[in-house]
């Protein structure tokens, strides 16, 4: 917690126990500095020491690095998508689902190629005029509306 709050070094007292021996002390000398003060020994740990320890011990905390992405099932093949030219109002259900799944709705062309996305989080940052955009624009134009902060230029001229 101290390092996360910005501490550059942590001073840790080294307690003498029956099991602590020379090998443990040599191990500490490799990665950090041991100092003595009034007969007590202290170890200075840097942020790098903590990161090095965590990275070296990651296999003990979790078996995740040994698993494939497929085995972890972290990429969903159930993609929420809407056609570029379909009415934006038809995307409302997909947007609701994407909010619950913490993902976005893909906007695809007639060949199924990815064009862009409609993010429910970006949509939530829009003002009330987005309601009119959903009611009147296509999904592709809504995507442009959200990304540009207003209607696309070619629609304004109409």
UniProtKB/TrEMBL annotation:
Superkingdom: Eukaryota
A cellular-component GO term for this protein: cytoplasm
Keywords: CBS domain, Repeat
Keyword Repeat: yes
Keyword Repeat on entry: yes
The protein, known as: CBS domain-containing protein CBSX5-like
Organism: Trifolium medium
Lineage per the UniProt record: Eukaryota, Viridiplantae, Streptophyta, Embryophyta, Tracheophyta
């Amino acid at each position: 917690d101290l390092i996360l709050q910005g501490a550059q070094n942590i001073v840790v007292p080294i307690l003498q126990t029956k099991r602590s021996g020379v090998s443990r002390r040599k191990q500490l000398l490799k990665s950090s500095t041991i100092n003595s003060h009034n007969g007590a020994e202290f170890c200075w740990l840097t942020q790098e020491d903590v990161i090095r320890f965590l990275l070296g011990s990651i296999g003990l905390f979790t078996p995740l690095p040994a698993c494939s992405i497929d085995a972890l099932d972290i990429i969903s093949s159930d993609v929420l998508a809407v056609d570029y030219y379909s009415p934006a109002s038809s995307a409302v259900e997909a947007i609701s689902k994407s909010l619950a799944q913490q993902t976005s709705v893909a906007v695809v062309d007639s060949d199924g190629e990815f064009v862009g996305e409609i993010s429910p989080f970006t949509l939530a940052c829009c003002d009330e005029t987005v309601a009119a955009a959903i009611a009147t624009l296509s999904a592709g134009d809504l995507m442009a509306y959200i990304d540009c902060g207003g209607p696309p230029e070619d629609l304004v001229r109409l």
